[in-house]
Each structure stands twice: as C-alpha cells, then as structure tokens.
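PROTOCOL LOG
Step 1. Enter all chains and additional molecules of the complex.
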Amino acid sequence: MTTTYGQIDTALPELIRLLGERLSTASAVREHHGHDESGFRPLPPDAVAFARTTEEVSEIMKICARHRIPVIAYGTGTAIEGHVQAVHGGLCIDLGGMDRILEVNREDMDCTVQAGVTRLQLESHLRDTGLFFPVDPGADASLGGMAATSASGTNAVRYGTMKENVLSLKVVTADGRIIKTGTRAKKSSAGYDLTHLFIGSEGTLGIITEVTLRLHGLQEAVSSAVCSFTSVDDAINMVIHTIQSGIPIARIELLDALMMRAINGYSKMDYPEQPHLFLEFHGSESGVVEQARAVQEIASEFGGSDFSWATRSEERNRLWKARHDAYPSALQLQPGTRAITTDVCVPISRLAECIRETREDIDRASMPIVMLGHVGDGNFHLAILPHPDRPQDVEEAEALNHRLVRRALAMEGTCTGEHGIGQGKIDFLQEQNPAGVELMRQIKRALDPQHLLNPGKVLHMPDNDG
Amino acid sequence: MTTTYGQIDTALPELIRLLGERLSTASAVREHHGHDESGFRPLPPDAVAFARTTEEVSEIMKICARHRIPVIAYGTGTAIEGHVQAVHGGLCIDLGGMDRILEVNREDMDCTVQAGVTRLQLESHLRDTGLFFPVDPGADASLGGMAATSASGTNAVRYGTMKENVLSLKVVTADGRIIKTGTRAKKSSAGYDLTHLFIGSEGTLGIITEVTLRLHGLQEAVSSAVCSFTSVDDAINMVIHTIQSGIPIARIELLDALMMRAINGYSKMDYPEQPHLFLEFHGSESGVVEQARAVQEIASEFGGSDFSWATRSEERNRLWKARHDAYPSALQLQPGTRAITTDVCVPISRLAECIRETREDIDRASMPIVMLGHVGDGNFHLAILPHPDRPQDVEEAEALNHRLVRRALAMEGTCTGEHGIGQGKIDFLQEQNPAGVELMRQIKRALDPQHLLNPGKVLHMPDNDG
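Step 2. Run joint prediction.
Step 3. Record the structure below.
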C-alpha cells in the first residue's frame, strides 16, 4: 500500500483560522524553509506555520493528521544531511518563535526551554549563574533541533552529547497528543526510555517542543591551548595517548593543514598551515595545571610544537569561535560551492588507521577536502568541496564518502557520529544495521502510521517511498 | 481482543529437541525461577530453558512465538519489584549459563559480555587491567539483567547508571530475530536509539543476550570515609551542599540509624547507631586531598563527626561490602519477613523536604523501616519490614509506599530511580505519566504483538490482562 498524502489546500482554512498571519504560503518563506546548510536539493514545503506554544503545535498536528499532510519540524535550518527538505511537500512548522527559557533551577543544575531557544541564547542567559550547557555543535542551533538530531560538539569528550544531557522532553505525537518523556529527577528506571527514543529521531517520530537539560557547574579554572604537528598521524597518536591515559580533557580537536589555512583566512588568524590540535582543560587550579603538564609531555613525544596558551577568556572565545566557524571557513576555499560534508566515528584504537587510509583518499582527490573533528571521541568530519562547474566532482566526492563510511563500519564504527542520517545517510544506515533498521521501521509505523512526520528522512519506508 | 496463550505441552517436544537436558520441568527448578528477592507472590513458570548462546535464545523464541508461549528472561533473580514471576505461566529462559566475557578492549576502554556474566565476575576479570565497570547494584546481578532493569548503584553520582554505560546490546526480538543495537563507537547519531529502548524495558520488548559496556580507568587515588550525623536532615543538607558545590564525589550514601544497627549486626561492624554518610573520592593524589578537604569542611558545618578514613583497599572493600549487603542486613531486623522495598528519586532541591516528610511517616509506622540511598542523585530507598504474622502490616506498608511515591511525583520526581517497575509499580507509572504509558503501549504492541515477552510487567496491556 502506498501512502497518498492530502493536498495542503484542504487544510489551509483550518490552519489559517488557528494561526492567522503566522501561516504563510509566500514563496520566499517557503524557499527559505526548503533547505538546510547541506548541498541537498532544496524542496520547499507547501506552507510554513510559525508556532508559539506546544498546544498550538498539537492543534496543527491534529489538522494535518486529519488531512494527511506531511509535517516537517524546523529549528534553525543548520543541519547538514538534508534534514528539512519537504521531500513529499506538506507543512513546515517553524519553531523559532518558541524561544522562551521557561525555567532555570540553579540548585538542581537543570533548565527547561522551548524548542526554538538556541544554544548561544541559552549561554548568554546562563551568564553569571555559574552554570553552563556543554553541547556545542558548530552552528547556533536550536536546542529542540539539537535534541532531535542527537547533536554533539567539542565538549562531548568530557561532558557527553545530547543523549547524556537531556533529562526530559515535551513532544507532540503524529496524532497531536502531548507527551512528557521524563521528569526532573536525575535518574529514573520508570518504564521505557521515551526521552532517548525521541533524541536523534530527526522529527520522524514526534515534534519536540520543550527540552529539559542538565547543566554543569562552571569550573574553577579553564585553560585552552593550541599545538601544531608535522603530520596528522602524530596529532592523532597524541590524542589516543591522552585519552588512554585517562586525563579528563574537556576538548581535544583536530584541524588539518588545509582547515588551518581556511580558518586563518576566515577568522583572521595566522597559525602555521600544519595539522593542529585545539585543547581545553577544566578543573581546579591545580587540577588544570596537572592535566596540562601531562598533556604537554605526551605532545612532546609526538613532536608537538608551538604549544601556545590562552587563559584569558577573550583569547579562548576567539579560539573556539574560529573552531566553530570551521564550516563557513571551509566554504571560502572553493567559492560558490555547496560542500559535501560527512562524519564517522570509530573506536579510538582504530582511529589512526581510519584517518591514515582516509588521508590517502584525500591526497588522491581532485578537489579540496578539509578534515577536522572531535578526535577524542574517535569522531572526525570531512568537508569535501567540489568545484561548482564540475559535476563530475560531486560523483567523485560521493564515492569518497562511501569509502569513508565503509571503512568506519569495517572498524566497528558508525556511519555518523553526530551529523545524523537526514536524507544523506539512509542507505548507509541500512548498510550498517539492516536488522536494526527493520526494528526502527516497526517503531516508525507504530508511532506514525500515516508517515506524516518528516517523511523521506532516516528510513526508507517501502510503503511510502516505494 | 484478549490474548490466548498456548499450552507449554505443545512446545515441549521442540524445546527438548533443541535443548535436551537443558530444558527442565522439574518442580524445584520451576519454583526457583518463580520469584525474585521481593515479597511478591512466587509464580513458577511451566518450564525453564538454560540457554548458552544468542542463537539458541533466538530458536527458543521462535518456537514460543509459534506456540504463543510467554517467555521470561531470567538472570540472577535478584530484582525486587516482582520482575520474573510467571504471571501468565510460560517458559523461563535462564541466561545464567551465558557467562562468557567475549572481549575486553583495553585501548577503547570497553568490553563485551554475554548476558549472564555477573558484575563481580566482571570485576574480578578486570583486575590488573587498570579498568573497572562502575555500576553496582546491591546484589551480584547479571549484566544482562542490569541492562534490562536500567540498574544503578553507589557510583552513579559520578559515573552514571546503565543508561550511560552501555554502548550496545545484542537482543532477540519477540519473533526470534537477532538485533545489534549499536556499535563500539563512543557516540553515534545513526537512527533511532535502540540501545536505550531496551535498557530498562525489563524483558518486555526483547531478550538481551550480549552487552557491550563502557569501562573506566582506575583512578590514581581512592579514599573512602564514614561520617555520622545527629539527624538525617543534617546529613542530607551536607549532601546537597556537596553536590551543589560541584565536587566530583564518586560515592555519597545515606544510611539511617536503623540501617546502621542492621549493618552492625549483619556485617559485624560497630558504628554508632546514628545516621551516616559513606563517602568515596576518586582522582589524582592531590585531587582527592582537595575534594576530601572541601567535603570535610561542608560536613563540619552540618555537625558531621567521627570522620573516619579508609584508604587501604581491604578497609574500603569491607566498608562497601557492608553497604552492598544493606538488603540482607535489613531483613535480619524482622526474621521471617518479606520486605517491601521501594525507591524514588527527586530533584536534589526537593530531597530534604521529601525525606523529612517521609521520616514523619516512618516515625508513625508500626513496623521497622530502614532508609538508605544514593542521595547524591536525589534517590533513596525504604525497606519496610512487616511482621510475618500481621497481615495488616502489609496493607499499612503499601499505603506508606503509595504516599512516598505521590510525594515524589508532586516534587517533579519519579516513582522509581533504579528498582524498576516490575509488577510493583505498574499503577504508579500510570499515575506518573498516563500519556507516556499510552505511547509505551504502542511500542509494546509494535514489537511484541502477541504479548509474549514477560507479560504482566511494566505495563497493563488492556487486551492482555483484562
């Protein structure tokens, strides 16, 4: 049986009655919501709803369920695997207006925010509380989107990803019910783990409208450093030794020589164009000194040089801002291009081998490719930059991406450490875990029998995309 | 539609052909598998299968699916909410014989074990590797069981629960398929989080046959201490201040005066019969000294006294062995009783209030009740000890338990922090999250449409238990 979706026209009167001017069919608005930051073909939705409350999302969902209209949740549009394109048309719900920070509980070190609150908005709100939220993907993403895509970032090696930092969610189901997945208790063994079911489901099982997050206490001392290496291999070996020594390093990021050139250009820095590690230490004053000493010793074993420290917070912020801007920096290397980005994650014992083989591939490629990543977790990214006028570059890039994923899978790794599946990695997920995908389909059918929620993402549903 | 289960007799020939003498219908064997360590009424299964491999569990499951026989996975039988009773009869699969440690990857700090490996078996296997696995419920439970019940323990405040320490599972589904839920990569955003779906599902969604665990590096320095207080209130306030100060304490456990009496008796200790905290610090030599100094200062603010240190590992082991034996210790206070145990977890800002109100209830009770818990997480337990000859005690105990759960829910807490739902907390889970339970039912129906897996636990299924 193939799903037949309804026409948006049949639902529009009800949607307009509910939302008034916050329902738009203007083509500029639709275009804007038809793509993320990836190179995937833009596919505008038929209409865009600007929601303000969970109850409103619930009402929208009920209308769309009655009329069989696909629904795509939209945060900031900063995903990079083709997450928000309206593959089957339908309604995009823009949650950006749900930007209220509902509560911060200092004593419990948690907070609850609407889905549209962005990570920098939260960061600025938490200033002077002594607390911070550690998950930091490159973009200033919304926290709802970060939960939906299981986002991660530079602090994950110490503080974990969204999976470890979400206590509870409020979710609207495919038929418009409102569900809380957890409580504010720090731990619970009360029934199935609904919180984790929705984290990383990319809007295909429900729409996340509120997020309750774990916060962390700011450390007494923070110190950042930059260190250069003559080869990526040396840098990686230094990382592996650091992790295996059990040093509780807060950040340890690899940027290859080309990435450094891009960052120098975009962020007006003047680092040598060599592989670098960006590092950060968190702890007590003496703890940070201890960690830094131990890491510097390991670095010197692997030829690390130019160890330069940033202890003042402005210096540190400049450093990490440059790191977070890696993606726009890379794009400048090939003006007019749409980058093909990819990420994999492997057990750390296989990381050196995985990166070595990948570098051989990069050296043979006919276009610029930058490598960077959260190597303390065994996770690294490529941004492949095909020439805008050479369509054959795209084909070559895709083949290289495929080889990378196959390499990671052969090493007991995963086809994506943090970018998610979107449209881009559906076949890779299938390759990684065919039996698991069949189980995911059972769950999808149970929770969204009409295939309304972000269809065409995460899973091929044979009865839907034929 | 009400589920009609098949008769075991119809499946026995096939099961015996598969398992030979490892299929038993002996009444002693059935009795042994008909109860956990709780006071819930024993309900023996119709037969017990002793499985050795995942493939065997899969074959057993296929036979039972064809004949519509309920299947209960059994590890060590140490749960305490009525988790393994054969409510609808059927086959118990004892996984205790699946006790092989399949691999330990020192470099990646992970290991993979069969479901029947127990936590002490793993601890002893890891000796001399420099690694340890932190999750430590009181009993020497199996790691499959610990994953299935989302177990926790004294180290959770620093190292997390099973939810944070399982990388991947191998699971047999209700129709006998074998599924791997994850990889050995430290993080992944590849599709729905099947790992967490099975953690805490108590054998109702699938049977866990292999577990891949995160391990942690042994710390350079470990130091334990015991400290007494004149009131539980003071002890709790000390805990709250410690947690809110961000001190990375590894263990901080409350034992009330009656619990101390029980431990003194059972473990031949001679602590004063006053509320105590058992504490442990992990870190570098200087880090541990720093933490201990900070905590001692906080303790003295709240009248903590008799701070006694255990730095040698034998002393420490004796201390924590006594703590882990809290449950059998408590039972000695009322010989011949079957304890009613319960646990809740609340945000730490509400912990003092929750415990104060609960103590008033305890003071009014007509039977002994001990209180203890992982208070650094906001999680505490009661073991209520009704007199074996006074049935009215049970009713009183249940009412007290109900008040405790309601109190925790009103404080944004959960009806169970780590004991799970089993049979004991099905109604409480419903009270805590009715909309969530409806979603859990949808998942249950999708993955186990015949209601074969551990029926009568976690959820009431209206089409099954009437």
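Step 4. Note key features.
The first helix of chain A runs from residue 8 to 19.
The longest strand of chain A covers residues 207-214.
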